[in-house]
């Protein structure tokens, strides 16, 4: 084995998963996180079978299953009429067809499960309050007291370490924004279904809603075009940004419009994506997750791709005779899959936001597709086994 110690910069989902994946192969990991504590951030999260399969191999899926919801179906619904256009069965169907469950949960639930597993693993050391500057390798060694064979940058879409890689990817604003908020189940309107992930489609905008059992609430994400507010996310929407939300969804079904108007303190998220580029320096530095390939949420695969990255990188590093070979194999393998997932997201964006004749054509095609046929289109994505 070419690697004995790994430094992981960033203790988000990608970083914590990577630590567990490397430890699975007997590799010692130091995880460096600049925050003094891991706070509850974000909102809901969808974990498709390709991701839950990895989490099962890492021993954390059981903790999630006790808290999450496995929806009966994922359905596409008209945002104006509330008429269902199509659906894909989930729940038991997902377990049987793709061999692993499809769950929805709060991001903090996944973070807590990963953190618990990392803290319990003697090969993993989490070092909070560790801000890493430009002298990356020296600073990591000074904090931890040892030099690392490999540095894994899992520090997100605005990665500070990415610049050390020639021809690295760049973060760019997508011209889309997301408003996120939760509605308690006790106050939920009838259009929020407790047993489903619902995507409500409309011209140039859409809404995704699903239950969060551990919060006794529904997670709601509304996505449309919007302005850039800089390298910030999860900030409370200003009055002007809340007004922009209502303008984008004017003309939708009255019950949806009323829920958006009544939303309290929605957060405003400019959506960034990362351009293609190199993911490693050929020697000892590699990118995973959003640092490598942040994508728009139209396929609900951002977290899943980060989880797959972490697992496959550790497997390649453990199996191949040299680190250079492992990094090259990882990038080649992952870049192809990420490109395919990104293309699926762009297709969904086109379909979800269709208007005029394109919308009529979309509705006709969906009406002709039975649920089993739509599920088959996802076999390559949800049936993927990162092992």
TrEMBL record:
FAD-binding domain residues: 5-341
Enzyme class name: oxidoreductase
Protein name from the UniProt record: Salicylate hydroxylase
Molecular function GO terms recorded: FAD binding; salicylate 1-monooxygenase activity
SUPFAM superfamilies in the cross-refs: FAD-linked reductases, C-terminal domain, FAD/NAD(P)-binding domain
Domain of life: Bacteria
Cofactor(s) the protein requires to work: FAD
EC number: 1.14.13.1
Keyword Oxidoreductase applies: yes
Keyword hit for Oxidoreductase: yes
Keywords: FAD, Flavoprotein, Monooxygenase, Oxidoreductase
Organism: Rhizobium soli
InterPro entries: FAD-bd, FAD-dep_Monooxygenase_BioMet, FAD/NAD-bd_sf
């Amino acid at each position: 084995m070419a690697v004995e110690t790994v430094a992981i910069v960033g203790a988000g989902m990608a970083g914590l998963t990577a630590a567990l994946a490397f430890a699975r192969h007997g590799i010692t990991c130091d995880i460096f996180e600049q925050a003094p504590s891991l706070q509850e951030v974000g909102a809901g999260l969808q974990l498709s079978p390709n991701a839950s399969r990895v989490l099962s191999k890492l021993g954390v899926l059981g903790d999630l299953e006790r808290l999450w919801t496995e929806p009966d179906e994922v359905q596409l619904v008209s945002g104006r009429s509330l008429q269902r256009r199509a659906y894909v069965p989930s729940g038991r169907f997902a377990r049987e067809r793709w061999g692993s469950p499809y769950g929805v949960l709060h991001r903090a639930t996944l973070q807590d499960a990963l953190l618990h597993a990392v803290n319990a693993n003697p090969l993993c050391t989490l070092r909070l309050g560790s801000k890493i500057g430009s002298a990356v390798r020296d600073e990591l060694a000074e904090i931890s007291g040892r030099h690392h064979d490999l540095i894994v940058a899992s520090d997100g879409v605005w990665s500070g370490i990415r610049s050390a890689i020639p021809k690295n990817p760049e973060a760019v604003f997508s011209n889309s924004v997301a408003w996120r908020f939760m509605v308690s189940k006790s106050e939920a309107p009838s259009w929020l279904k407790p047993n489903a992930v619902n995507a409500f489609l409309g011209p140039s905008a859409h809404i995704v809603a699903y239950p969060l059992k551990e919060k006794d609430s529904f997670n709601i994400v509304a996505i449309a075009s919007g302005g850039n507010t800089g390298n910030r996310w999860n900030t409370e929407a200003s009055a002007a940004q809340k007004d922009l939300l209502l303008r984008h969804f004017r003309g939708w079904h009255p019950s949806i419009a009323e829920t958006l108007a009544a939303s309290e303190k929605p957060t405003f998220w400019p959506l960034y994506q990362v351009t293609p580029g190199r993911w490693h320096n050929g020697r000892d530095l590699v990118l995973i997750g959003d640092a490598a390939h942040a994508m728009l949420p139209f396929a609900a695969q951002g977290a899943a791709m980060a989880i797959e990255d972490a697992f496959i990188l550790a497997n390649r590093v453990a199996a191949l005779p040299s680190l250079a070979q492992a990094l090259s194999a990882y990038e080649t393998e992952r870049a192809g899959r990420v490109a395919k997932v990104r293309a699926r997201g762009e297709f969904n964006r086109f379909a979800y936001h269709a208007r005029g004749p394109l919308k009529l054509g979309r509705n006709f095609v969906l009406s002709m597709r039975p649920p089993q046929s739509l599920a088959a289109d996802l076999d390559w994505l949800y049936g993927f086994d990162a092992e």
